[in-house]
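Annex B. Sample input.
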Amino acid sequence: MKTLLISLFTIAATSLGAIAQDAVKLELTGNDQMQFDKKELTVTEGQKVTLTLKHIGKLAKNVMGHNVVILQAGTPVPPFAMKAAPAAATDYIPADEESKKLIVAHTKMVGGGESASVTFTAPAPGDYPYICTFPGHFGLMTGKLVVKAK
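Annex B, continued. Sample output.
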């Protein structure tokens, strides 16, 4: 019985360790100067990723809002951002089906002092651009999510 309990405990501990390694928490900040603090984030394919955006500025979201939109690898950023610009009602996330297919994950729009998180599974290996879609911000607020193979 003691051996059985030790074996079950070992299996449970190993499984919990594997789950912890498969999950990653990332943080990105945006400020009132339209800048993300990181230009590159790295994860492993298949990982459960929780990305938190913190707006460390003071301005309200209607004048200096930020979000993070991770796009499919190879997505041309300027055309996507232009489709997002008039979409204030949806936090500057385009609502058309073609654009939705280009989005891996996104946070809601936040203002100074606010934060938002999104959880998703890291896609196939590659470089995935991320941007802020508040009108005009994508020129400065951009980076890439690097997904490495297992």
